[in-house]
Amino acid sequence: MSWYDWFASFYDRSVEPLYSEARAAAATALAAEPGQVILDLPCGTGQSFDALAPTVGPRGLLIGVDYSDGMLARAALRARRLGPTPIVVQRNDVHALDGNRLTAAAGRDVTLDRLHIFLGLTAFPAWEAAFERLWALLAPGGRCVIVDVHADHLGLQGRIVNLIARADLRRETWRPLERCANNYEYVTLPAKREHGGQIFLASGDKPR
Asked: Which numeric CATH code is attached to 2-205?
């Protein structure tokens, strides 16, 4: 993960401005309620914490998980500056995450009410298996939001994004949620050339 550790050193100032509006839209679509538990994975430098934490309030919990120590160090600093919502961060591999590891992160048994996957599925090595694992952790009736970028054909900018983010923008990362969710919705978000493709938001509820 040394690449992402280095990426973390300039991510906030050079890349994050491209996604600030999408983060706000994702928090709205997630429709979290006070007292609920949100899993933010990959949480990166914690840029979504500002939008997500107020939705669950001081009785709720926000769990940020990433596999990069560099990203998590910055996420932990951000979490300490925010309040009063409890925020915990944990280094973990999405392909190994399970209920026991979430319990360890939270320090107590938790029911996962909301799942926030922002710019992750295009980068995870086994992205479909990763989604299935995360979906299995989500409680029945819980809600999932995916924000990512897709390009049918990669132009120069798409290839640059793939190289920098270690991603594959050609993946149709909304498809697993489309197949298994109730109240599924897919919307395109305002895209910029720097995104390398079409940024989108997909949302849906896990059947009870």
From this structure: 3.40.50.150
